[in-house]
């Protein structure tokens, strides 16, 4: 698996930045480790805005098209259904964009029950989900549908 010669973007939510910054760092490190020389980072206000930024990146033609996009954010669960609705809508929007444009959009958006669970998934006990999303993006950027 190699990211050499591939172009990537990370779209990250500013909301819950104390967690998301670790996801961005993990994704960027993983892309660099696999040889990516072009990694853009775009920050948006929250996870709700991630699909809009992803669409803008997928439709742009200059300077060059991207090979894959990594979406990272953190939607903390609360006492209401708001987080579940938000996560479902963002997930569906990103899946729709992936299939519409035929470009990988890797899911690195956490949906933990608590801040401690979020931190565990951002580089503590449970690994770094930003790294995992970057690995999926690299693999899909290299996907060849020919047998």
Terminal residue distance: 17 Å
Total beta-strand segments:
6
Radius of gyration (CA) equals 15 Å
Largest sheet: 4 strands, parallel
Helix content: 40-55%
Show unreliable segments.
Answer: none
Question: What is the average per-residue confidence, as pLDDT, rounded to a whole number?
Answer: 91
Tell me what portion of residues adopts beta-strand conformation. 15-25%
In order across it, which strands form the biggest sheet?
2-1-3-4
Structural class, by secondary structure, is alpha/beta
- Judging from the principal axes of the Cα atoms, what is the shape? globular
What order do the SSEs take from the amino end to the carboxyl end, as H and E?
A: EHEHEHEHEEH
DSSP helical segment count: 5
What does this protein structure show overall?
This protein is of the alpha/beta class and 147 residues long. The chain has 5 helices and 6 strands, in the order βαβαβαβαββα. The strands form 2 sheets. The protein has a 4-stranded parallel sheet, sandwiched between helices. Strands 5-6 form a two-stranded antiparallel ribbon. Helix 1 links the parallel strand 1 and strand 2. Helix 1 crosses helix 5 and helix 2 packs parallel to helix 3. It starts with 6 loop residues before the first strand and ends in a 6-residue tail after the last helix. The model has no long low-confidence stretch (mean pLDDT 91).
Summarize the structure.
About 45% of the residues lie in helices and about 20% in strands.
Write the layout of secondary structure elements.
Elements: E1 7-13, H1 17-33, E2 38-44, H2 50-59, E3 68-74, H3 82-101, E4 105-110, H4 115-120, E5 122-124, E6 127-128, H5 129-141
Parallel strand pairs: 1-2, 1-3, 3-4
Antiparallel strand pairs: 5-6
């Amino acid at each position: 698996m190699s990211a050499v010669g591939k172009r990537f973007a990370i779209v990250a939510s500013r909301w819950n930045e104390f967690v998301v910054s670790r996801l961005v760092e993990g994704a960027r490190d993983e892309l660099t480790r696999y040889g990516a020389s072009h990694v853009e980072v775009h920050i948006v206000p929250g996870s709700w805005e991630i699909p809009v930024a992803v669409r803008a990146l997928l439709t742009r033609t200059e300077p060059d098209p991207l090979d894959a996009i990594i979406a990272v954010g953190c939607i903390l669960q609360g006492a209401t259904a708001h987080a579940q609705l938000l996560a479902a809508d963002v997930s569906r929007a990103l899946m729709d964009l992936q299939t519409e444009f035929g470009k990988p959009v890797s899911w690195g958006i956490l949906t933990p029950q608590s801040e401690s669970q979020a931190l565990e998934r951002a580089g503590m006990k449970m690994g770094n989900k930003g790294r995992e999303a970057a690995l999926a993006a690299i693999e899909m950027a290299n996907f060849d549908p020919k047998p």
